[in-house]
Amino acid sequence: MNIRSLIGTDDLPRRTFTVAEVERMGEVGLIRDDERVELIGGELVPMNAKGSRHETLKLEIMLRWGDQRPPSHAFIPETTLRLAPDTFLEPDFLVFARETALRDLGADTVLLAVEISDSSLGFDLGVKSLIYAHFGIRELWVIDVMGMVIHVHRDPAGDRYRSITPWHIDDLVVPAFAPSAFALRLADLHIGE
Protein backbone atom coordinates (compact mmCIF):
# COMPACT_ATOMS: atom_id res chain seq x y z
CA MET A 1 0.00 0.00 0.00
CA ASN A 2 1.10 3.53 -0.72
CA ILE A 3 0.78 5.66 2.43
CA ARG A 4 -0.11 8.71 0.32
CA SER A 5 -3.20 6.89 -0.92
CA LEU A 6 -4.59 7.01 2.63
CA ILE A 7 -4.69 10.80 2.80
CA GLY A 8 -6.31 11.33 -0.58
CA THR A 9 -5.09 12.65 -3.84
CA ASP A 10 -6.02 15.45 -6.18
CA ASP A 11 -4.48 16.99 -9.24
CA LEU A 12 -2.42 19.58 -7.37
CA PRO A 13 1.36 19.29 -7.56
CA ARG A 14 2.89 18.16 -4.31
CA ARG A 15 6.26 18.53 -2.64
CA THR A 16 6.96 15.72 -0.24
CA PHE A 17 9.37 15.83 2.66
CA THR A 18 11.44 13.39 4.67
CA VAL A 19 11.47 13.13 8.45
CA ALA A 20 15.01 14.56 8.44
CA GLU A 21 13.88 17.59 6.40
CA VAL A 22 10.97 18.29 8.72
CA GLU A 23 13.21 17.97 11.78
CA ARG A 24 15.61 20.45 10.16
CA MET A 25 12.71 22.84 9.47
CA GLY A 26 11.99 22.77 13.18
CA GLU A 27 15.64 23.42 14.04
CA VAL A 28 15.83 26.52 11.83
CA GLY A 29 12.41 27.87 12.87
CA LEU A 30 10.38 27.16 9.72
CA ILE A 31 8.11 25.08 11.94
CA ARG A 32 7.51 26.69 15.33
CA ASP A 33 7.91 24.71 18.54
CA ASP A 34 4.20 25.14 19.29
CA GLU A 35 3.11 23.92 15.85
CA ARG A 36 1.84 20.36 15.91
CA VAL A 37 2.32 18.41 12.69
CA GLU A 38 2.65 14.83 11.56
CA LEU A 39 4.33 13.59 8.39
CA ILE A 40 2.34 11.02 6.46
CA GLY A 41 3.79 9.66 3.27
CA GLY A 42 5.96 12.76 2.95
CA GLU A 43 3.10 15.25 3.40
CA LEU A 44 2.83 17.55 6.40
CA VAL A 45 -0.50 17.23 8.16
CA PRO A 46 -1.41 19.88 10.75
CA MET A 47 -2.89 18.50 13.95
CA ASN A 48 -6.01 19.94 15.58
CA ALA A 49 -5.81 21.99 18.74
CA LYS A 50 -6.49 19.97 21.89
CA GLY A 51 -9.58 20.61 23.98
CA SER A 52 -9.67 20.76 27.76
CA ARG A 53 -11.24 17.27 28.07
CA HIS A 54 -8.40 15.90 25.92
CA GLU A 55 -5.79 17.48 28.16
CA THR A 56 -7.59 16.47 31.36
CA LEU A 57 -7.77 12.85 30.21
CA LYS A 58 -4.10 12.91 29.22
CA LEU A 59 -3.15 14.25 32.66
CA GLU A 60 -5.25 11.61 34.43
CA ILE A 61 -3.65 8.81 32.41
CA MET A 62 -0.15 10.16 33.10
CA LEU A 63 -0.84 10.30 36.85
CA ARG A 64 -2.35 6.80 36.94
CA TRP A 65 0.33 5.16 34.81
CA GLY A 66 3.11 7.06 36.56
CA ASP A 67 1.97 5.62 39.90
CA GLN A 68 1.44 2.08 38.59
CA ARG A 69 4.08 1.39 35.96
CA PRO A 70 6.59 -1.35 36.69
CA PRO A 71 10.28 -0.34 36.60
CA SER A 72 10.81 -2.59 33.57
CA HIS A 73 8.54 -0.48 31.35
CA ALA A 74 8.07 3.17 30.46
CA PHE A 75 5.58 5.43 28.73
CA ILE A 76 6.08 8.76 27.07
CA PRO A 77 3.52 11.36 26.04
CA GLU A 78 3.58 13.13 22.68
CA THR A 79 6.85 11.91 21.30
CA THR A 80 7.74 11.58 17.64
CA LEU A 81 7.28 8.03 16.41
CA ARG A 82 9.43 7.71 13.29
CA LEU A 83 7.92 4.94 11.17
CA ALA A 84 9.63 5.47 7.80
CA PRO A 85 11.90 8.04 6.16
CA ASP A 86 8.77 9.92 5.05
CA THR A 87 6.37 9.22 7.94
CA PHE A 88 6.15 10.12 11.60
CA LEU A 89 3.24 10.36 14.00
CA GLU A 90 2.85 12.10 17.36
CA PRO A 91 0.74 9.72 19.50
CA ASP A 92 -0.52 10.90 22.86
CA PHE A 93 1.26 7.97 24.56
CA LEU A 94 3.66 5.18 23.71
CA VAL A 95 4.35 2.28 26.09
CA PHE A 96 7.60 0.33 25.69
CA ALA A 97 10.22 -1.69 27.57
CA ARG A 98 12.41 0.63 29.67
CA GLU A 99 15.56 -0.76 28.04
CA THR A 100 14.47 0.63 24.65
CA ALA A 101 16.10 3.92 23.67
CA LEU A 102 13.67 6.55 22.36
CA ARG A 103 15.47 6.63 19.02
CA ASP A 104 14.69 2.90 18.67
CA LEU A 105 10.93 3.21 19.10
CA GLY A 106 9.18 1.53 16.21
CA ALA A 107 6.72 -1.22 15.34
CA ASP A 108 8.90 -3.89 16.93
CA THR A 109 9.44 -2.01 20.22
CA VAL A 110 6.16 -0.15 20.84
CA LEU A 111 3.89 -2.27 23.02
CA LEU A 112 0.96 0.14 23.00
CA ALA A 113 0.18 3.39 21.16
CA VAL A 114 -2.61 5.64 22.46
CA GLU A 115 -4.43 8.41 20.64
CA ILE A 116 -6.80 10.62 22.65
CA SER A 117 -9.42 12.03 20.29
CA ASP A 118 -11.94 14.78 20.50
CA SER A 119 -12.21 16.75 17.25
CA SER A 120 -9.91 14.29 15.42
CA LEU A 121 -11.89 11.11 16.15
CA GLY A 122 -12.80 10.36 12.53
CA PHE A 123 -9.20 10.80 11.37
CA ASP A 124 -7.79 8.75 14.26
CA LEU A 125 -10.23 5.86 13.74
CA GLY A 126 -9.82 6.04 9.97
CA VAL A 127 -6.63 7.11 8.24
CA LYS A 128 -4.42 7.16 11.32
CA SER A 129 -5.36 3.66 12.45
CA LEU A 130 -4.60 2.41 8.92
CA ILE A 131 -1.15 3.98 9.16
CA TYR A 132 -0.46 2.33 12.52
CA ALA A 133 -1.62 -1.02 11.07
CA HIS A 134 0.45 -0.53 7.90
CA PHE A 135 3.60 -0.19 9.99
CA GLY A 136 2.70 -3.11 12.26
CA ILE A 137 2.02 -1.36 15.57
CA ARG A 138 0.59 -4.34 17.40
CA GLU A 139 -1.87 -2.48 19.64
CA LEU A 140 -3.51 0.92 19.27
CA TRP A 141 -6.05 2.50 21.59
CA VAL A 142 -8.10 5.39 20.22
CA ILE A 143 -9.86 7.02 23.15
CA ASP A 144 -13.01 8.94 22.25
CA VAL A 145 -12.94 11.58 24.96
CA MET A 146 -16.45 12.84 24.18
CA GLY A 147 -18.14 9.41 24.05
CA MET A 148 -15.83 7.90 26.71
CA VAL A 149 -15.06 4.81 24.63
CA ILE A 150 -11.68 3.13 24.09
CA HIS A 151 -11.46 1.63 20.59
CA VAL A 152 -8.88 -1.15 20.94
CA HIS A 153 -7.12 -2.10 17.70
CA ARG A 154 -5.11 -5.33 17.66
CA ASP A 155 -3.67 -7.82 15.21
CA PRO A 156 -2.42 -5.67 12.33
CA ALA A 157 -2.50 -7.42 8.96
CA GLY A 158 -1.52 -5.53 5.86
CA ASP A 159 -3.10 -2.13 6.13
CA ARG A 160 -5.83 -2.90 8.67
CA TYR A 161 -6.37 -4.23 12.15
CA ARG A 162 -8.19 -7.55 12.21
CA SER A 163 -9.63 -6.85 15.66
CA ILE A 164 -11.24 -3.54 16.65
CA THR A 165 -13.26 -3.61 19.87
CA PRO A 166 -15.02 -0.68 21.56
CA TRP A 167 -14.74 -0.69 25.36
CA HIS A 168 -17.04 1.58 27.32
CA ILE A 169 -16.54 3.81 30.34
CA ASP A 170 -17.01 1.07 32.97
CA ASP A 171 -14.96 -1.59 31.15
CA LEU A 172 -11.45 -2.42 32.34
CA VAL A 173 -9.21 -2.45 29.26
CA VAL A 174 -6.03 -4.49 29.71
CA PRO A 175 -3.28 -4.20 27.09
CA ALA A 176 -2.33 -7.39 25.28
CA PHE A 177 1.41 -6.68 25.06
CA ALA A 178 2.21 -4.13 27.77
CA PRO A 179 2.06 -5.03 31.48
CA SER A 180 -1.37 -5.05 33.11
CA ALA A 181 -0.27 -2.02 35.16
CA PHE A 182 -1.20 -0.04 32.04
CA ALA A 183 -4.83 -1.23 32.21
CA LEU A 184 -7.39 1.55 32.09
CA ARG A 185 -10.99 2.05 33.13
CA LEU A 186 -12.22 5.47 32.07
CA ALA A 187 -14.75 5.58 34.93
CA ASP A 188 -11.83 5.52 37.42
CA LEU A 189 -10.38 8.77 36.07
CA HIS A 190 -11.38 12.25 37.20
CA ILE A 191 -12.43 13.76 33.90
CA GLY A 192 -15.25 16.08 34.98
CA GLU A 193 -17.79 17.49 32.61
From TrEMBL:
<dbReference type="InterPro" id="IPR011335">
    <property type="entry name" value="Restrct_endonuc-II-like"/>
</dbReference>
<dbReference type="InterPro" id="IPR012296">
    <property type="entry name" value="Nuclease_put_TT1808"/>
</dbReference>
<feature type="domain" description="Putative restriction endonuclease">
    <location>
        <begin position="31"/>
        <end position="166"/>
    </location>
</feature>
<keyword id="KW-0378">Hydrolase</keyword>
<dbReference type="InterPro" id="IPR008538">
    <property type="entry name" value="Uma2"/>
</dbReference>
<keyword id="KW-0255">Endonuclease</keyword>
<keyword id="KW-0540">Nuclease</keyword>
<protein>
    <submittedName>
        <fullName>Uma2 family endonuclease</fullName>
    </submittedName>
</protein>
<dbReference type="GO" id="GO:0004519">
    <property type="term" value="F:endonuclease activity"/>
</dbReference>
<dbReference type="Pfam" id="PF05685">
    <property type="entry name" value="Uma2"/>
</dbReference>
